[in-house]
Structures are given as C-alpha cells and as structure tokens.
Write a structure and sequence with these properties.
Blueprint (H helix, E strand, L loop, with lengths): L3 E6 L6 H13 L8 E6 L5 H8 L5 E4 L16 H6 L4 E4 L2 H7 L3 H13 L3 E6 L3 H5 L3 H13 L4 H4 L3 E4 L13 H19 L1 H4 L4 E3 L5 H8 L6 E4 L6 H9 L4
Parallel strand pairs: 1-2, 1-8, 2-3, 3-4, 4-5, 5-6, 6-7
Helix pairs in contact: 1-2, 1-12, 5-7, 7-9, 11-12
Length: 253
C-alpha cells in the first residue's frame, strides 16, 4: 500500500524556542506511525538540524520547504539539494503555490529542482493546483494536467514512484474554505488517472497524493477516508500540536 502521509508545512513561522516547544508537545503524545504511514515536518531552514535531532527517534521525517534549482555556485541566499542531503534531510517541498505566486517559480525551474532532488536521493513533495478563477470556469482538470505534464513528464516511471504529489486547491489555502471530500477525491482520482496514462497503473497506484487545502483535525477523517487521498500537506493546523496530532491519527492504516 502506498504511504499515507501527514506533512506539516510551517511556512515562515515560529522562533527557535517556539519551534522546539511545538515539536516537544507533539512528541509527548508518542504517536507511532504505522508501516504504511509517514509524518513529515517541513520547517524553516534554520530549524532543520534541530528538528531532525528531535523527531528521528520517533520515526518522523524532516523536509525543507524549498531548494535551489542550481547544483552550487554564486547564488547568494540559496540552499542546494546537496547541502540538504549533507545534513540528512531527505524530503523537500517543490513548487508550493506561494513559491509560484510570490517568487515567480515556473515549471522549467520546478523540473530542475525535481531532477536535483531525485539525483541526490531527496524525496520531492511536488505541489500542483488551481486558483479560484480556474475552478469557476471548470478548467481545473486542464490546468492541473498541464502542471503535471510540464514538471513531471520528463521522468521515468521508476523516478515518478519516488515523487510525492500534493494537490493544493489554491482557493482553499489560508481562506478557511475547504474542498469537500468529494471534490478532493475527484481531483486526486483525476491526477492518478493522468499518471496512469503516462506511466501505467503500477506507477500511478504507487504515488502518494496529498490534499493541501485547509486540512484540520475536524475534517481530516473525512478527507483522508477518500480512496485516492493519501494524507495531507498541512499549513496552519500544523502549528497547533493537538490539531496536528488529530490529523496524524486520521491517516489510513
């Protein structure tokens, strides 16, 4: 069975003291992930090593929220995949809607980041999803298909199996709106069908597809109960220990 994943995306939040306290509060609950479950904390760059030291014994993983599309060189302020790997980080979020919108990350750049991650043994969590105006026009499937084709279709089936996809309905991020479980399932099933068309059912059924739009403790069970929803990429609720613990417990076994 493909991995069921609860991934916390802290974004640009928390001081070091706050980050340590939040992790400690979550770890106190000692929620052990099952064999097909994974808990990941995508924390700001300065906290990566601290987080890794704290959560590894619990069986949890740590992710970076971004990486450079360059291997190395004169790119002040950037962080390379090789650097992440050298400190034991083996997951990285790629193409979050905020990176696309605020920092102009286009599909060509994302494809380069994905390739570097795969080359260095880092699992990318690739984000895709549509804005409200696209959904209102009924064009969400075409939009998401284009994102997948431009960023992923250069990779082989064996490489695709190493990528996690996170579907972000952009209209439901930070707005308090949430896609219904039915809407989430429809898009996740569509994404899996696109993967199957390109690489076959064996690959498509191996890829974890996360829901990334205002997941909360209150709606996690319903969302994750959908057959093609393999967990969540969680923003605001991951900054609350009790909320995120509920979300972890909602993962399918």
């Amino acid at each position: 069975m493909r991995k069921q994943i609860a991934a916390a995306n802290w974004k640009m939040n928390l001081t070091l003291e706050g980050a340590q306290g939040l992790l400690d509060d979550i770890l106190k609950e000692a929620v052990q992930p099952g064999a097909n479950q994974q808990v990941i904390f995508a924390v700001p760059f300065p906290y990566l090593m601290m987080a890794k030291e704290r959560v590894t014994q619990q069986g949890y993983a740590v992710a970076a929220q971004n990486c450079s599309n360059k291997k190395s060189g004169a790119y002040t302020g950037e962080v390379s995949v090789e650097m992440l790997r050298s400190i034991g980080i083996d997951h990285c979020i790629i193409g979050h809607s905020e990176r696309r919108e605020y920092y102009g990350e286009i599909d060509e750049i994302l494809q380069q980041k994905l390739a570097l991650c795969l080359d260095h043994g880092v699992t990318p969590i690739f984000c895709c999803g549509e804005a409200l105006d696209v959904r209102e026009k009924g064009k969400q499937n075409d939009f998401v298909r284009e994102q997948l084709e431009k960023a992923l279709f250069e990779f082989s089936g064996s490489e695709m199996k190493k990528i996690v996809i996170a579907y972000e309905p952009i209209w439901a991020i930070g707005t308090g709106k949430t896609a219904t479980a039915e809407q989430a399932q429809q898009m996740h099933a569509f994404i899996r069908s696109v993967l199957a068309e390109k690489w076959g059912l064996d690959v498509a059924n191996d890829v974890s597809i996360l829901y990334g739009g205002s997941v909360k403790g209150a709606n996690a069970n319903e969302l994750f109960g959908s057959p093609d929803v393999d967990g969540g990429l969680v923003g605001g609720a991951s900054l609350n220990a009790s909320e995120f613990i509920q979300i972890i417990k909602a993962l399918k076994h």
